[in-house]
Design a protein that fits this description.
Elements (H helix, E strand, L loop, with lengths): L3 H20 L16 H8 L5 H9 L3 H9 L5 H18 L8
Helix pairs in contact: 1-3, 1-5, 4-5
């Protein structure tokens, strides 16, 4: 039997991860590896003039709340809801904070 709630959760997971990915991209991030810009950190320091992560991080964090609500509603006994919530939170942290944390 098909579990439609899990299919809906997976569809929302892919949608929200796509939105998080699109809103966390910096301008001209794709030029890393061209010319003098050998990695993302050098491109980040050379081109950051309009860092929108301070606005889009809280906006996209609101996409995680339905997963947190479902995990709490199932009293943290559902492995599926716990895993999808953890995956989305880790992806959000990676896209907005962790990948540039070592660029000094």
């Amino acid at each position: 039997m098909i579990n439609w709630k899990r299919i809906a959760s997976l569809r929302y997971l892919f949608f929200s991860s796509g939105v998080i990915h699109l809103l966390s991209i910096l301008d001209h991030e794709d030029i890393a590896g061209e010319g003098e810009r050998k990695n993302v950190c050098i491109a980040f320091h050379a081109l950051v003039y309009d860092d929108t992560r301070d606005v889009f991080a809280p906006v996209t964090a609101m996409l995680i709340f339905p997963f947190i609500f479902m995990a709490i509603k199932s009293r943290l006994h559902s492995t599926f809801h716990n895993a999808t919530t953890a995956i989305l939170i880790l992806f959000w942290l990676w896209r907005f904070f962790i990948r540039f944390s070592y660029c000094l």
